[in-house]
């Protein structure tokens, strides 16, 4: 049985996210713990945080996942921007602990033309600083990216190089995004392509490090470098691709979070339904 959910809103109160996830039919869900489009944020209200934990504990859904906001860039060479990014990562790790959320997903950022090696070193430093500042059991998940220009984390080798520099390896894992992997050139439309991709991941990173799947179809083609999510089965990975993905134990065994559009073609509940159908449930 697959465990599938979507990204849900925290509008009104963070505690309402659990109810929204349940209404959509989620087994697992993802949130932003704050406004993702700005630097400023207010501290968690203790009452709201306690209610979130209570609702989450009663819901039967697991895990809840937090995603880093959009603005931080852990690979940037701009000093002020970098410091704000590290502080945001530190704060999010702490907020996850307060909310009882086990996983925080982060992109690795962009090196802005200074080179992948320099970018990776900055990411390693940022992660080590944040983890050393926050003493809890939250696991930081490094998300693969779509191969966009100056991006850090588009290849499995890139992510492995970052993982090697982490001083507390037990506190870091990987979030595998299907749209991003496809955009970066990893074939996910054929049984052979999926097997090769999973074997490559296992050989380079280690299958056990992957703790979450972002299950998204892609508006971009294979190797396009485009990070444009599409409804499950309606993009370039396609229905046949997701039938194969959802029959593979690497994907079936992990929580699946859809970060798909909501439009007149399909809503969140619709994507969850399609995933369950394609998974044979």
Please describe what this structure looks like.
This protein is an alpha/beta fold and 281 residues long. The chain has a single domain, classed as Divalent-metal-dependent TIM barrel enzymes (TIM Barrel, Alpha-Beta Barrel). It contains 10 helices and 10 strands. The chain has helices at residues 16-24, 46-59, 79-99, 116-133, 156-164, 178-183, 191-204, 238-245, 249-252, 268-278, and strands at residues 4-7, 28-31, 64-67, 103-106, 139-143, 172-177, 210-214, 217-218, 229-230, 256-258. An 8-stranded parallel β-barrel has the order 1-2-3-4-5-6-7-10. Helix 5 links the parallel strand 5 and strand 6. The longest helix has 21 residues, at 79-99. The radius of gyration is 18 Å and the shape is globular. The model has no long low-confidence stretch (mean pLDDT 97).
Write a brief structural summary:
The chain is α/β, with parallel strands linked by helices and 281 residues long.
What characteristics describe this protein?
alpha/beta, 281 residues, 14% strand, TIM Barrel, 10 strands
């Amino acid at each position: 049985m697959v465990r599938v959910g979507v990204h849900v809103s925290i509008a009104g109160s963070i505690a309402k996210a659990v109810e929204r996830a349940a209404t959509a039919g989620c087994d697992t869900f993802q949130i932003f713990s704050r406004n993702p489009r700005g630097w400023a944020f207010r501290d968690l209200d203790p009452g709201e945080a306690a209610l979130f934990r209570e609702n989450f504990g009663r819901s039967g859904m697991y895990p809840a996942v937090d995603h880093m906001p959009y603005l931080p860039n852990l690979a940037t060479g701009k000093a002020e921007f970098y410091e704000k990014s590290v502080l945001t990562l530190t704060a999010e790790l702490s907020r996850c602990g307060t909310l009882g959320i086990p996983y925080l997903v982060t992109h690795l950022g962009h090196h802005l033309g200074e080179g992948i090696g320099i970018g990776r070193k900055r990411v390693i430093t940022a992660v080590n600083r944040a983890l050393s500042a926050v003493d809890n059991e939250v696991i930081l998940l490094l998300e693969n990216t779509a191969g966009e220009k100056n991006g850090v984390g588009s290849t499995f080798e890139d992510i492995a190089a970052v993982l090697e520099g982490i001083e507390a390896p037990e506190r870091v894992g990987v979030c595998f995004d299907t749209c991003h992997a496809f955009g970066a050139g990893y074939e996910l439309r054929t049984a052979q392509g999926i097997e090769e991709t999973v074997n490559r991941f296992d050989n380079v990173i280690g299958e056990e490090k992957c703790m979450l799947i972002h299950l998204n179809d892609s508006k971009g083609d294979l190797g396009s470098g485009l990070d444009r999510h599409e409804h499950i089965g309606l993009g370039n990975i396609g229905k046949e691709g997701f039938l194969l993905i959802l029959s593979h134990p690497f994907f079936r065994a992990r929580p699946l979070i859809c970060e798909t559009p909501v439009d007149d073609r399909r809503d969140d509940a619709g994507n969850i339904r399609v995933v369950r159908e394609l998974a044979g449930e």
